[in-house]
Design brief:
Elements lengths: L10 E3 L13 H15 L10 E3 L3 H8 L10 H27 L5 H56 E19 L4 E5 L20 E5 L4 E2 L5 E2 L9 E18 L1 H52 L7 H16 L3 H27 L9 H12 L5 H16 L3 H8 L7 H21 L1
Bound molecules: zinc ion (ZN).
The site of zinc ion (ZN) has 8 residues, from loops.
């Protein structure tokens, strides 16, 4: 119950005829219970004459027993005893109803909110643990992919080192220079088809000749007597003169290795793909963490709402559940990361709880951070969470069933006195009818 119900509580003691219609021995344990509630929750439930009523139902049993089919007989003294019991019980009932009439009706909504919040906290622990383990998995995925990216970087670096290879390029030029050469030792090289293209720059008509012939010659040398000789064919040389030459020269150049370049490009594409995945994962992680923090905040708010307003002390389900999960992981000794993530979550929860605890202490007595109506509002916010909203909604349906066995729609009728089907009013009317009938029975 919400603490505001404390003033509306009365204690009815039955079977009291043997104790002269007094409360007697029950009073001791009851006082102790109420003392504990007062001490722990700061809620006073008065134990005064107007909250205690002692009865007996022996008059009812008497009436049943004297019915013809049972035919029980009682002595005059016994009858007097039953009659006295009836008068006392009737007076007590009247006194109780008179007292109840003076009471301000308890806002059922407040107590429903308490029960609802309690159930929500309990059912929210599972999505909370679920979301936490997803965050953990996402972090691991990111780490794995970051390692892959590092590997690719490494490979790329190595490929870049061998990407450029030295090549020799042969160029041709025309030299006009009169030289004497050996006609017997001409070596002809034939260039056909596209091989001729390298000469286009110097002799535009090269493509008309197929093959295009380039002659390599051995120049004649002179000995000390001024006589020509050929290094190649010695004295059998044939002297010839030419004044225009095609001369080749080579150029050293660096060029990209096509295979390496393709390999490098492939690696680059793969790495960029992975980097995109990492970006997606990072975004997901941020969103999940935000949702997790929202649930943690909501849970602590509920916990404080419960602690602050309920009559019985609140048993912190979230803390207990997380500790249980940690304990389980410790015993299994399989997934160290999972246990650590639960520990982190518990840490987060406890920090949040501490923050709220301070806020509650500093706030005016009734402010408490959360009011009954806020409970429903926070729940609505949780349901609209992008990733885990649906899971929370499922959990909350279970929470409602556990509490009311009712749909949310039905719950709304009780919350809103003037709901579409005026269910609250129907309840009220039924209740009033029952009250009227019993009143007439007792008084009339
Ligand atoms: Zn020669």
């Amino acid at each position: 119950f919400h603490r505001s119900a404390a003033d509306n509580i009365v204690f009815c003691f039955t079977n009291t005829s043997g104790y002269e219609f007094s409360v007697s021995e029950t009073l001791t344990p009851l006082s102790e219970l109420l003392r504990q509630i007062s001490e722990n929750q700061n809620v006073e439930i008065p134990l005064k004459r107007h909250t205690m009523y002692a009865y007996d139902n022996m008059a009812y049993r008497f009436i049943c027993a004297v019915q013809p089919e049972y035919g029980c007989k009682f002595s005059v003294n016994q009858e007097a005893l039953y009659s006295k019991s009836y008068s006392i019980s009737r007076n007590e009932t009247q006194r109780m109803l008179e007292h109840i009439k003076t009471l301000k009706p308890h806002r059922a909504r407040d107590s429903i909110s308490i029960n609802y919040a309690r159930s929500v906290v309990l059912h929210m622990t599972e999505p909370l643990a679920m979301i936490n383990s997803t965050v953990q998995q996402t972090i691991e995925k990111i780490a794995e992919r970051q390692k892959l990216v590092a590997d690719f970087h490494n490979d790329e670096e190595k490929l870049r080192e061998i990407l450029m290879k030295p090549i020799k390029l042969v160029h041709w030029k025309i030299e006009t220079d009169t030289r004497i050469y050996c006609k017997a030792c001409i070596v002809e090289t034939h260039y056909r088809g596209d091989q001729r293209l390298q000469f286009v720059g110097i002799t535009p008509n090269v493509m008309d000749e197929d093959p295009f012939v380039v002659r390599d010659v051995t120049y004649l040398k002179k000995d000390e007597n001024g006589k020509y000789f050929c290094d190649n064919c010695d004295q059998n040389y044939k002297k010839a003169v030419n004044s225009m030459w095609l001369v080749s020269f080579t150029e050293e150049k660096e060029e990209e290795d096509v295979t390496v370049a393709t390999d490098l490009k492939e690696k680059l594409n793969k790495r960029q793909g992975i980097e995109q995945q990492i970006a997606v994962n990072q975004k997901l992680k941020t969103e999940l963490e935000l949702e997790r923090d929202t649930i943690v905040k909501a849970s602590t708010k509920f916990a404080y709402f419960l602690n602050l307003y309920s009559i019985a002390p609140y048993n912190d389900a979230t803390e207990k559940y997380l500790k249980q999960l940690i304990d389980k992981e410790e015993k299994m000794e399989i997934d160290d990361k999972k246990r650590k993530s639960y520990e982190q979550l518990l840490g987060k929860y406890l920090v949040e709880k501490e923050v709220l605890s301070k806020a509650v202490k500093n706030a005016p007595a009734d402010a408490g951070g959360v009011q009954a109506a806020d409970v429903i509002e926070i729940v609505q916010d949780l349901k609209s969470l992008r990733h885990y909203g649906k899971d929370i909604e499922k959990a909350l349906v279970a929470a409602q069933k556990a509490n009311f066995g009712d749909s949310e729609e039905d719950l709304e009728y009780h919350f809103h006195p003037f709901g579409p089907r005026h269910r609250y009013q129907q309840c009220q009317r039924k209740y009033e009818n029952v009250l009227k009938k019993s009143w007439n029975y007792i008084v009339g």
